[in-house]
Every structure is written in structure tokens, then in C-alpha cells.
Amino acid sequence: MTACAIESPSTGAEHEAPTTRYAITADGAYAARLALDGESWFPERWTLDGPEPYAVPLPGGQPEEPGTEVQPMGDGRVLIHRLVERRHAFSLLYPTGPGTGELAVGSVECGSDTYVTLLPPAPGGERAYALAVCETSTAVWLVAGGAAGPERVAEVPGRCSGGVWLEPAGRMLALDRELAGRTKTVVVDLERDGEVSALLEIAPDSDDRLLLADPDSGLVVISSDAASPGQERLGWGVLGGTLPVRFPGALRLPDCTVTPFAIQPGQVLTPETCAVALRVDGPLGTWIATWRPTDRQVRHLPAPKGWLAGSGLWTPKGVLRLPYSTAQTPCGVAELTAPARDAAPAEPARAGEPEPPAPRPVPLREAPLAKAAAE
To answer: What is the pTM of this model?
Structure first.
């Protein structure tokens, strides 16, 4: 299952960086967020794989800072990332009867010009990673699940952001790297001493970012200004494919910001039929849309009341599960079924506006993934 969380400033950072306010494990079993009780923040774990979702509060000895990050682990514990002076401290939280148990796993010391943020939950749920970003380079840290405390596993030249897992083993990590004034997506092989290779480059002078990837089908959703210089557009392609990335006109919604946050898994041989969930922010508020590469248009759906905006996951059967929290239902999951896909081939969403291809085939390079699959 593919999920993405909303973004907010990083812990202790002067720069903007993604912070996981609500994160879901790769298998969809657990989630975690920083919840608010009056004016006090505290970690909260959600269990999602039972008959009904339920939340377990995990408060510490004192309220958490608003920028504190939390992330669920596959065994039900919650990783917490706090800033203590210049140390980024990591601990595992777990319920112990009426209280909260806490196991310190170590810390990372950084200068004032570096910000640290957790990466999205890794497949398997046994390990957790973080990025430490400074002006000239980015370090990838294994902060939970290692042999002895936090361990730096890769060093990438340039400033990196994002973070997308490309296969179910949790080995190949895609990062959006800003270097020499351009942003391109690279792959970091965490089992080959952090070996870095290019993944996404549509044109030499374009900014290209990988937003989502589904390991089952290889479907990827990207953002690039290659088709419209100076204007970011959403596109799609297939990992290891030879066809160019497409930039559907249907994904251009005037006066709205469109953010993809989940891809339907399980469509191994038919990536074009995967449903993609979109968060839409516009003049009328925030709502949800669904789209498939085969569709001629997006389908708009109202968001459930109290939706934790930007979070959710698909089931293989095409049910979109959306977490929400209201005064009446503090821990809830709404389920929406994706509309049936278009019977006719995809066409431009608007008359007179052709769907522009990328200037040349995107090298979504399959070599690193082929090696990972073979070993």
C-alpha cells in the first residue's frame, strides 16, 4: 500500500522540510501522529488492521514541541524525533498499561545549518531512516533498527528532499536532489554503501521530482516543468519503461494545487489502471480526486469531515481508506471506492489542449532495480 503524509516545517529547522505529522506503515497496519489536547501535543498510535480503528495515546513526561516528528514501526511501537539543543534524539515509544514506555535509540548531532527530518516509513517496518540536509550535501541516517544506534548509511552531494521507496525490500530509495541549480531524482542503494545513480531526468534544464511510486506495477507520478517551462505539471510513467512520461491535461486544475498522495497497489501487469488519489486545494477548500492514467478526467469526491488532509492508502481492490478525527469520532477511517475506469482510451481533458509528451523518453533507469531483484 502506498501512502504519503502532509508536510510541515522540520524539527528545529530554519528551512522548510517534510515532517510526518500523520504517517502510515507500508503495510497499512499502524499509523502515528502528533495529536493536540488543548494546547499540549502528544504522540498517538493508530491501529488500522483490526475490525475497527482505534488510537492509543503515548504521552511522555511533558508535552511535545509542535515540530516533533513521529513514525509508526511495524511492531506497533512509535519512533519519536525530538530536538534537544543541537542533538536530534530518537526514541521508541510503546504502551505500558496506563503509561508510556520509552526506549532511547540514540541521537545525531548537527550544526545549526543542518536540518533533520524522518523519511517515509520503510517497507517491512523494522527500520527507520532520516535525512540530514546541509547546504552542500545530504546524509541518510539509519535511526532505528540498526545494530548499535543511529548509523550514517549514505552521503549524497547536493540538497535532497522527498523520499520514495522503490521496491518492497527497503533497499532502493529515491530522493529529489538539488544540485547546480536544478532538481533531479536520484536513487540511493542502501545496501551498496549508499551508491547513488540517476533515476529521473526529462530534459537537461528541467526540474524533475518523483512524488509517488508503486513497487507492484512500477507506476510513478512525477512533477516537472519540462512540458511547460517555468510551470510545474504532474506526469506519469513506468519504472523501467521505454515510453516517454505523459503530462495529462486532466491533471491541470485551474486555481488549484493538486498533490498526489496514494497509488493503488496490486496491479502488477497493468500500471495504467492503477487508481491515484489526489488532494486538491482550491478556492472552495480541500477535497479529494481520483484518477487513472487511462482516464480522460479526474473524479472529484468530498473529503470526510476531519480528514487528516493528505493522508490515506488504497487497498488492492480499489478502496481508498482515509483517516479522520472529529470530536465525535477521534479515530476513524472513511472508505471510498474508486469510480470505474473509463471504457474508452484516454483523451485530452480539454478540447484544443493536446496532452504533451516529455521532450524525450524519461530514463527511469531499471538497472539498479534489476540488480536488486536479482540478488
So the answer is: 0.86
CA-to-CA dists, residue 216 to 190, 212, 269, angstroms: 20, 12, 8
Mean pLDDT by 10 residues, the chain (375 residues): 36 39 94 92 95 94 91 98 92 93 95 92 97 96 93 97 95 96 96 94 93 96 90 93 90 95 94 96 95 93 95 95 96 89 45 39 39 29
Nearest to 12, CA basis, from 150, 92, 144, 130 = 130
Burial 161-197 (b: 16+ CB within 10 A, else e): bbbbbbbebbbbbbbbbbeeeebbbbbbbbebebebe
Grid coordinates representing 338 are 474508486
Instruction: Give the sheet arrangement for strand 78-84, strand by strand.
Output: 69-72, 78-84, 87-96, 99-109
How far is the C-alpha of 152 from the C-alpha of 131, rounded, in Å?
Answer: 10
CB 330 within 8 A of CB 57: no
Strand partners, 35: 42
Q: Which of 247, 259, 317 is nearest to 288 (CA)?
A: 259
Question: Can you give the length of the chain in residues?
Answer: 375
> How far is Cα 335 from Cα 99, in angstroms, rounded to an integer?
32
Q: Classify 76 as helix, strand or coil.
A: coil
Q: How far is 340 from 99, CA to CA, in rounded Å?
A: 47
22 closest CA partner among 39, 9, 41, 35: 35
Going by C-alpha positions, the residue among 321, 323, 324, 325 that lies closest to residue 336 is 321
CB 45 within 8 A of CB 143: no
What CA–CA distances, in Å, run from 60 to 57, 90, 96, 146, 308?
Answer: 10, 14, 12, 24, 23
pLDDT for the residue numbered 38? 87
